[in-house]
Amino acid sequence: MDNNAFRLVWDPVAGASGNYTVQFSKTADFKTPITFGTSATNSLTKTIQDLNTSLLQAGYSPYAQTMLYIRVVNGTNVSNAISLGVTPYPVSIPVITNPLAGQSVVLNVNTPTETALTIKWNDYDYGTDVNYLVEIAKKGSAAFSELGSVQNVKELVLSHFTLNEAASKL
User: What is the pLDDT of residues 84-94, one digit of tens each?
Assistant: First the structure.
């Protein structure tokens, strides 16, 4: 999807000279316009990845649909604005920071409700609700089982009992 084209085409300005500048804004009044690109012709083609990167740099939150206002400027000529709802996507995946690779966990049958392991990860702050599903698989296997899920937090706390139950099903 990243390399799919995002193409804008507009009517050329009669007698225009110089490049066209495609601007976008979070607001209809273009109080703080952002230049998305320039073109010597009456069209601009970028990739979806270019658009997504520009949206993230402009402060749009991944997974949250927000209005995008677009216009074209050539000298003193300014087009009408169009608007569309956009939903940016994150450019990186969550990274597990705990446990470390190869770390052992000792389960204790005498304390089944106590915490055996807290899985933690780093991720982008999205500005919207994010559901994380944490899965487990036997080393070398692609058959994953659900360990648990959380919303809007970047850790999953597992008791001795819960972790033992999941491990016994692998």
Answer: 999 998 888 88
Mean pLDDT, range 142-165, rounded to an integer: 94
**What's the pTM value of the predicted model, to 2 decimals?**
0.63
Residue 36's H or E segment, with its range, is strand 34-39
Distance CA 68, CA 89 (A): 15
Going along the chain from its start, the domains and CATH numbers come out as: 5-86 (2.60.40), 95-168 (no CATH)
52 phi and psi angles, rounded to 5 deg: -60, -45
CA–CA distance, 34 with 24 (Å, rounded to integer)? 5
Is the Cβ–Cβ distance between 97 and 123 less than 8 Å?
no
From residue 124, alpha-carbon distances to 4, 16, 40 in Å are: 24, 43, 37
